[in-house]
Amino acid sequence: MPQSAVIGVDIGTSSSKGVLVGLDGTVLHTAVREHAVDRPAPGHVEMHADIWWDELASLTRELTSAHEADVVAVGVSGMGPCVLLTDENDTPVRPAILYGVDTRSVPQIERLESELGANEVARRCGSRLTTQAAGPKVAWIAEQEPELFRRARRLYMPSSWLVRRLTGAYVLDHHSASQSTPLYDIVARDWYTPWTDRIAPGIELPELRWSGEAAGTVTAEAAHLTGLPTGIPVTTGTIDAWAEALSVGAHGIGDLMLMYGTTMFLVHTVPGLLRDPSLWSTVGALPDTRNLAGGMATSGAVTSWLRDLFGSDDYRQLLHLAEESGPGAGGLLMLPYFAGERTPITDPRARGVIAGLTLSHTRGDLYRAALEGTAYGVRHNIEAIEAAGGDIRRVVAVGGGTQGRLWTQIVSDVTGRAQEVRTTSIGASYGGALLAAQLVSDARIDIWNPVQEVVTPRPEMTSRYDELYALYRELYPASSHVVHALSDFQSR
């Protein structure tokens, strides 16, 4: 008799990932579909929603055929917050606008803060308006593409779009809604009608549920397209970073998750509502939880860029060269703001800077500088979280960047923080699978995914990095006027 299993699917920035997991947490099969974002103009980052559904269907067909198992539930997640508007027939009116890596909505942010009051937005919604927020992107479509906006009737994100196609339910999880500033009231935990009517007139907003709740069951049509059994439950889902945190059990009070991916995400679970203008205050993926979060616009994206620039397909070779380079990367400092920066500087016009270059520097030095630059960004975010009242008691690492351990070791050395690494670091799709399993069983993450090792800081390295981190903090204010002028030049 086939064993019972669940499927988790996550739609990421550069790929979609699926995992088939037994109810005991054993990974039975994984599958990946790579894709690229569209960049139709400077600061614009988009993706067609057809990619999300087509890749889910392809992933589930592979997963269900690769291993004999009785699939009993499905969990979904995706990058976000994104803005996908559809008409009354659920046909997208335009490609989806992605999360904080898309910086087009700066004029709408400035206008909405002036009209609504920046402090009032932060008080009601938990966060200031930034390029991460979904609300200003809805406003951008309304202002810049009014003929398309007049056709719009519904708002989706990757996870809710998959739920709609799988079950017919029009729902969104509370966490994703809480990143839709200023549309969601973080205290009332509901849409804030005075502002939704103003910013998204004519849009029927989705019903709100918690990430682990069942949104519905797989329809006969969806089953035919995906290979999934008809009638099995599908979770409401959430944004990928929060699914990543669930995948490694980093959702207790005092936990901090570091997600090593295309971007770097930090999610800290707090006992009550904390607000800080340089960070994002959200509700959690689980009921009665709250988070203080941060995110860097690039991390793995910079290492991928360097890999392509070097003409290398082998990350292991580049990691070896970076390890040979040694702490300090031969005297290089990198600001990893290649797509602007989200927290804590909140500057969409920031740009990458590599300081200290000489003719003697190597590929290994540059790659090391990218890893160290990300680590300095993590430390900057950690300091901002603690300054805002966060109390970080445990750090858990997850994501593809934990492989090889050099990057995690550098982050521990730079921050002076130990990091737990769990046995399975697949990430969001595994977290989605866990939520799916909890619909039909008593699955627990400590049994599914125990701690494999703890990466501890090396005191002699931490003291050395303290000096370099101080220079890193000086580099942005010293160079910002130049990179802002260059950003403006790039936008012409």
Automatic annotation (TrEMBL):
Claim: Protein biosynthesis is one of the keywords in the record: no
Pfam families listed in its UniProt record: FGGY_C, FGGY_N
Domain Carbohydrate kinase FGGY C-terminal residue range list: 257-437
Enzyme Commission number, as recorded: 2.7.1.-
PROSITE patterns: FGGY_KINASES_2
SUPFAM superfamilies: Actin-like ATPase domain (SSF53067)
Sorted UniProt keywords: Carbohydrate metabolism, Kinase, Transferase, Xylose metabolism
UniProt keyword annotation of Glycosyltransferase present: no
GO molecular function term, any single one: kinase activity
Domain Carbohydrate kinase FGGY N-terminal, residue spans: 6-245
Similarity remark: Belongs to the FGGY kinase family.
UniProt xrefs under PANTHER family: SUGAR KINASE, XYLULOSE KINASE
Protein name: FGGY-family carbohydrate kinase
The species this protein was found in: Streptomyces aureus
Record lineage: Bacteria, Bacillati, Actinomycetota, Actinomycetes, Kitasatosporales
